[in-house]
């Protein structure tokens, strides 16, 4: 184990279907929105390119399944199946019919929970999307990958997948190890031929050259899942490629896009004070998140926009946005552009963590996504004045430190990062997690050292 002091030194102190109607275009009445009324049967759907499926424009992402209250934890039941069932039932009753999961989500529990919820309904009333998530080296082999595929069927209680994805590919080397050398791409193509995979696609985080290669590699892709939101459209950071480019390339080839991270890990649902005021000033009855969903869904070659919904309030609000969906008009597009500029003008950029949890568990117990969430929130809200001499600094400093301890228990905080780098290859955003942990730790230590707390 690297001692923390050595680690700091090494990095340097500066380290810094069914039930879904045809596509509707009529505007929802303002009174429907403001009263929170969902008009039954008005969910907007889009046809997939095969013409067989009528997919709800809102897709249910099953990465953030609700967890039980700590006082109600039952053995082996961290996730709240009953609450999730209720959300799924409500979503289905409102016309949501696309459910996206993966063997990786929710510590490997998502597929089983989704299977239990959906199998209570007619199999033809929903579309299942899941993935070959053979991301860990021990799952690269043909045997392990095929076993993962069959487990997905078992957990999801189905004998076919509507949408199946080669999960999270972004570089040649990784794709070769996971899908070419072991013959898994051929296996999946054969499964499509046999009808057990109805649509085969891939999800992308990575290098632009690899994206281009995938589109021209000779495999017929039915769809592609990309990170798309109003910031990443032209201002993708880190390892990401501008979504405008990705979408344009797919559109040129007639491959439909499935949108992930429309809220950029939740950041675009929260916004900051300035952004919330901007959106609420234009349309008080709509949520801040709804603007981000409408940005993504206004693109005509998008089949569905995934939303990871944890609470019934999320489900309701999202369904309202899509029942029926109205694309952004020119004035609204200009408002979104103002929000983009407000985000870009933030003096300190947060970490582009989407909260996917692929980096977890950290062998040293850090709660990586929660640490980034708290830190990013502080930066985007600009709650902490830059100088201790500024008005309100002491109060804001105290609020940050209390919030930090509440959000993340002491033993899981950034100062426990050893710099082992175990998490780095697992992060689709290619965040330098230990470097960022060091930054957070230095920030927190500086605030604590200022005393009084
Ligand atoms: S480098 Fe990553 S995995 Fe290792 S201790 Fe730090 S956060 Fe955890
Ligand atoms: S650090 Fe990376 S892998 Fe971990 S939750 Fe954030 S985006 Fe996901």
Order of helices and strands: HHEEEHEHHEHEHHEHEHHEHHHEHHHHH
User: What's the CATH H-level homologous superfamily of the largest domain?
Assistant: NADP-dependent oxidoreductase domain
- What's the architecture of the largest domain, going by CATH? Alpha-Beta Barrel
The rounded distance between the terminal residues' Cα atoms is 31 Å
Structural class: alpha/beta
Please give the order of strands in the largest beta sheet. Answer: 3-4-5-6-7-8-9-10
pLDDT < 50 runs, ≥5 residues: 1-35
The mean pLDDT is 88
- CATH C-level name of the largest domain: Alpha Beta
Give the C-alpha Rg: 22 Å
Oligomer designation: single chain
What would you note in describing this structure?
Helices cover 42% and strands 12% of the residues. The strands form 2 sheets. Strands 3-4-5-6-7-8-9-10 form an 8-stranded parallel β-barrel, surrounded by 5 helices. A two-stranded antiparallel sheet has the order 1-2. Strand 5, helix 6 and strand 6 (161-169) form a beta-alpha-beta unit. Mean pLDDT is 88; it is low at 1-35. With 453 residues, it is an alpha/beta fold. It is built from 19 helices and 10 strands. The chain has helices spanning 4-11, 30-34, 81-93, 105-108, 110-118, 142-156, 172-180, 184-193, 208-216, 232-235, 243-253, 267-270, 273-282, 288-297, 312-321, 330-344, 368-381, 393-407, 433-449, and strands at residues 45-47, 54-56, 58-61, 98-100, 127-132, 161-169, 197-204, 223-227, 256-260, 302-308. The chain folds into 2 domains: 19-25 and 36-344, Alpha-Beta Barrel (TIM Barrel), CATH 3.20.20.100; 348-449, no CATH class. Bound molecules: iron/sulfur cluster (SF4) (2 copies).
């Amino acid at each position: 184990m690297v001692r923390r002091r050595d680690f700091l030194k090494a990095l340097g102190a500066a380290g810094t279907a069914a039930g879904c109607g045809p596509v509707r275009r009529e505007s929802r009445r303002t009174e429907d929105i403001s009263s929170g009324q969902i008009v039954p049967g008005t969910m907007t759907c889009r046809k997939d390119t095969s013409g067989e499926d009528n997919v709800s424009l809102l897709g249910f992402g099953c990465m953030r399944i609700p967890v039980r209250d700590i006082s109600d934890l039952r053995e082996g039941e961290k996730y709240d199946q009953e609450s999730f069932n209720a959300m799924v039932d409500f979503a289905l009753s409102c016309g949501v019919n696309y459910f996206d999961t993966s063997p990786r989500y929710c510590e490997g529990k998502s597929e089983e929970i989704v299977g239990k919820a959906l199998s209570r309904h007619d199999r033809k009333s929903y579309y299942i999307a899941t993935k070959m998530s053979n991301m860990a080296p021990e799952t690269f082999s043909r045997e392990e990958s095929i076993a993962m595929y069959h487990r997905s069927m078992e957990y999801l209680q189905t004998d076919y997948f509507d949408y199946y994805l080669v999960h999270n590919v972004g570089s040649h080397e990784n794709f070769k190890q996971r899908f070419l050398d072991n013959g898994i791409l051929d296996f999946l193509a054969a499964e499509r031929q046999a009808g057990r995979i109805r649509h085969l696609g891939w999800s992308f985080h990575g290098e632009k050259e690899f994206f281009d290669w995938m589109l021209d590699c000779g495999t017929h892709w039915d769809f592609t899942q990309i990170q798309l939101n109003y910031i990443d459209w032209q201002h993708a950071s880190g390892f990401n490629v501008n979504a405008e480019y990705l979408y344009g390339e797919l559109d040129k080839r007639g491959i439909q896009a499935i949108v992930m991270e429309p809220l950029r890990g939740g950041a675009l649902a929260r916004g900051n004070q300035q952004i919330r005021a901007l959106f609420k000033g234009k349309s008080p009855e709509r949520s801040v998140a709804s603007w981000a969903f409408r940005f993504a869904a206004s693109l005509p070659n998008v089949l569905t926009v995934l939303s990871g919904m944890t609470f019934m309030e999320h489900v309701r609000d999202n369904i309202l946005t899509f029942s029926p969906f109205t694309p952004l008009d020119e004035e609204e597009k200009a408002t979104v552009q103002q929000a983009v500029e407000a985000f870009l003008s933030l003096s300190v950029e947060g970490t582009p963590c989407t909260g996917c949890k692929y980096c977890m568990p950290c062998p040293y117990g850090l709660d990586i996504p929660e640490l980034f969430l708290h830190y990013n929130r502080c930066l985007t809200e600009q709650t902490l004045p830059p100088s201790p001499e500024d008005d309100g600094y002491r109060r804001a400093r105290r609020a940050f430190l209390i919030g930090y301890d509440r959000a993340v228990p002491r033993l899981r905080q950034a100062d426990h990062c050893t710099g082992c780098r175990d998490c780095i290859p697992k992060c689709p955003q290619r965040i330098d997690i230990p470097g960022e942990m060091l930054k957070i730790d230095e920030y927190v230590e500086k605030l604590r050292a200022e005393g009084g707390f």
